[in-house]
Write a structure and sequence with these properties.
single chain, about 200 residues, alpha+beta, NADH Oxidase, 4-stranded antiparallel beta sheet, two-stranded antiparallel ribbon, 8 strands, about 30% helix, globular, binds flavin mononucleotide
């Protein structure tokens, strides 16, 4: 069993980083993230495994109080804008839909580009945790508009998710309904998720 200072616990002994990472919405609007920290976080993400080592992930980012910020922030749904406005940076993760297998004459459609990008997101979130930053992924954004707003070529790339990154702030910055939800959640028992040999419903 492992426990974390944020009151999470696991049945089996896992590294504390997995429990320490969680997705707050209360961010400290005074926090400024440096280029060095952002690049460290992106570098960790880039060490994720991927099919054929194709590394299909791309990260489009904007730091708050820069001219780029509104281009990403304006894509978020209002509910996410409400709390992500205090994040230090926003990221839109996109993945390349094709990969170049070794020895193939050209790129072929990739079965796993979204899976690979998900692995990169996990690396990113864990490295951020190591550095004392918090991440919060968001499906709640205008994906269709993202392609044009961020100049993502839709024929070859898929917009995957948006991510807010910031220092944890006081929950009092949130409206009351979100204050109540501002705590680390739990997980299903791992035994419910694991099947030996074949799928069981
Ligand atoms: C792909 C993805 C999309 C998500 N979209 C949103 C969102 O739009 N708004 C939000 O408040 N949280 C969003 N979340 C956060 C999840 O609700 C959160 O990760 C989940 O409840 C597990 O909690 P934890 O990250 O604190 O462990 C998203 C998470 C992921 C991975």
């Amino acid at each position: 069993m492992s426990t974390s200072s944020n009151n999470r616990s696991s049945s089996y002994a896992i590294d504390p980083i997995f429990l320490d990472r969680w997705s707050p919405r209360a961010f400290d609007e005074k926090a400024v993230i440096s280029d060095q920290e952002l690049m460290t976080i992106f570098e960790a993400a880039s060490w994720a495994p991927s099919s054929f080592n194709s590394q299909p992930w791309r990260f489009i980012y904007a730091r708050r109080n820069t001219p780029e910020w509104s281009r990403l922030f304006d894509l978020l749904v209002p509910m996410n804008q409400g709390w992500a406005a205090r994040a230090s940076a926003l990221i839109v993760l996109v993945s390349a839909k094709t990969a170049q297998p070794p020895g193939a004459p050209g790129p072929v459609p990739s079965y796993s580009h979204s899976l690979d990008a998900g692995a990169a997101w996990a690396h990113l979130a864990l490295q951020a945790t190591k550095l004392g930053w918090y991440t919060h992924a968001m499906a709640g954004f205008n994906v269709e508009d993202a392609y044009e707003a961020l100049s993502v070529p839709a024929d070859t790339f898929r917009v995957e998710t948006a991510i807010a990154i910031g220092r944890q702030g006081d929950r009092s910055v949130l409206p009351p309904p979100l204050q109540e939800r501002e705590q680390p959640n739990g997980r299903r028992p791992v035994e419910d998720l694991v099947m030996e040999g074949r799928f069981q419903s």
